Structures are given as C-alpha cells and as structure tokens.
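Hello support,

Our group uses your service weekly, and this is the first time we've seen a run hang past the timeout. The protein is Cytochrome P450. I'm not sure whether the cause is the sequence or the server load. Input pasted verbatim:
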Amino acid sequence: MTATDATSAPSAPAAAPNAPADPVAALTADPHAGFAALRESGPVHRVTGPDGLPVWLVTRYADVRQVLADPAFALDKRHAAPGNYRGFALPPALDANLLNMDPPDHTRIRRLVARAFTPRRIADLRGPIERLADSLLDAIAPLGRADLITAYAAPLPITVICDLLGVPADARHDFRAWTDALIAPDPERPQDARAAVGAMLAFFTQLITRKREQPGDDLLSALIAVRDEQDRLGEDELTSLAFLILFAGYENTVHLIGNAVLALLDHPEQLATLRADPSLIAGAVEEFARFDGPAPLAIRRFAREDVTVGGVTVPAGETVLAALASANRDPRQFAEPDRLDLRRADNQHLALGHGIHYCLGAPLARMETEIALSALLRRFPALALDQEAGTLRHRPSLRARGLLALPVRY
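Update from on-call engineer: The timeout came from a worker crash unrelated to the input. Re-ran successfully.
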C-alpha cells in the first residue's frame, strides 16, 4: 500500500512529512504508530491497496464515525465503479451476507436474525460459558505454562458458537485453519484460501440439510424456521448467515481475548487494579476493545455518489476504508488515547462498529471476554508472559489484529 501524491489524485490532501511512505508496511509492523502518523498528517489518505487498486483511508474518529453511519457509503459491491474493487471472491452461497448488504435487504435479514439471536438466548449462555472456561483452565492448570491462544482464547469462542448454532460435536472441524486461510492468506499458496472456501461451503450445506431433517433448540434451526410475514431467508442468505455468524463470532472474540490478556500483562498496574476490583470487568472489556481491538479496519464501503468526508471529496464508486484502530486512539476524542485505563469514562469506541451495521454479536463477544478474563485472573494469580513481549508475533494482516501465539506461565 503506497501513498499517492496530490498531483495524481487532485482531491487527495497533500502528503505531510510525517506520513509513512509505505503505509501498509508501517501498519503491519506497528499499526498504532502507523495510524498515528497518518492520522496526524491528514484525515483522509489516497493509498494503493495490496491488490494494486486505489482506496481512501479515513483515520480520524469523527470522520470514521461518519463513514460507518452515512448511507452514502454502501456495502453492496454493485456500487463499486468498474475496475475499482478486486475483493476475494466467495461463492454466492457464502457471499450473500450482511457484510455485503444495504437496506432494504440488510434491514430484512437483520430483523429476522434478531428474532432468533435474542438477548435471552445470549443470557442463557452465561452459565455454560463459565463452565467451559473453567474446564479449559482445568486442563492446562497442571502444566504450569501454555499457549493461551491455542489452549484457551481459541477453543472457548469456537465451542460457544458451535453450541449456539447447533453444530454437532462429530461435525466440528478445524475452523481456525479455515479462518486463517481467509484472514491472512499465504500469497505463495492461493490454493489454500480456495480450498478453505470450498470446505466451508460443503460444511454449511451439509449442516443445514442435517438441521432441516433433525431440528433442535439452536440458532441455526431457528433461522431455518424463521419467518417475518412474507419475508424469509433465501437459501444463499441462510447459508451465508450461518457462515458469517461462525466466522465473525469466532475470529473477533479470539483476538479480543488474546489482545486483552496481553494488554494486562504489558500494564501490571492495570492488572493489579482489575485484580483488586473485579467489578471493573465490564468497563475493562470496553477499554480493551478501544485500546487494541480485533479489527483495525471496518469492512470496505463504496461511495454511492460524490461524498465529502474530512474535507476531501470521495468520487462515486470508489472504495473507502474506515480505520477503527486509528479512530479509537484519536486524541480529538479520547484523553491520553495511548494509555490503557480500565476506569476510562464515556468510552464511545468504534471497535464493534456504529450505525445499522453495528456488530450483531457484540453482546456475546463482550460476555465471553468478561467471563474468559475473570476466570483466568481468578485461577492464575501468578500469570505472566513466558516470552519476551517484543518477540510476540501478530497475524500479518490488516483485516484482523490478533496474536499467533501467547505463551504464558502461571
């Protein structure tokens, strides 16, 4: 990803001396420092994406919030100008999901999902999630050390999502391998991503067939049966929705838990604060999401018409990326934004979105993270990193901010 100067993109702001010459390299190596340089050099940047096509990167809180809520920015790829977007191609049975839809289809499907994805259904999961967290910690307690991502942060949300959807134990696969292949594809092995897509499509097709024959008290059975007057989920919409719930519900929560644990271990005074007052956990999860959230960028948007954002005109049909990680550390919105503060008040972060596309699974992700962290700190009072903090490796992706491993001792 490279910055474009004002002469080749007249509507772009002039480049500032402190803007990184190669934004994608800077953002991958150190996203918060990279975003800070971009944010302070200008609110909107014309850059060239990894696929060689131009995008507009929006960096400041007020402007990111505008992009997320303004209907002038569409998710439907049909609004992309010809030759302006080259995203990863999913088959229709996985592509017809909420991340690619605008009203009225988005409104219809979200309303149908909300009737099945109820607060009561989520609240009923608290006890099972608490027992699951304890059982995972029971398994690693005698070892004295573990990779917390593999042993705890990953299996907890995938088990919860599978239980919620009603995925039978004998049908559960290595979802982490599939999601890894899509979130951070190996440029040397493009066949891995294609194979993951094919495997997921076959899995969900078979699972839906199985649920139609043997419905249960689970979310997928409810989605299959759900009706809203004359509206209903089409077959591709149903399959895509099941895919999205599993994919997003698992991926984001893994990273939120892992990033939160690392933030605590990197800030012992905040860890001591939370241990001394466990009632702070709900606000602490909001601060973890702001400080180092699971998604540096929101899903791409397309300008329906010429739109002004941050004083810059984005032409109709062009692609816009809203930098959530940058907005969440904007000093115009947050006092001392680079400081982790578990008592931070009025924390209106954008880590889980804003507007009609706000994350549908946010209540579940919050609850899982609260339970996971509370159980971990209660069980392991001597929890510490088992590796130099500077040597920990994050996923090499701008789509997701997560650790590849988190070795700890306890």
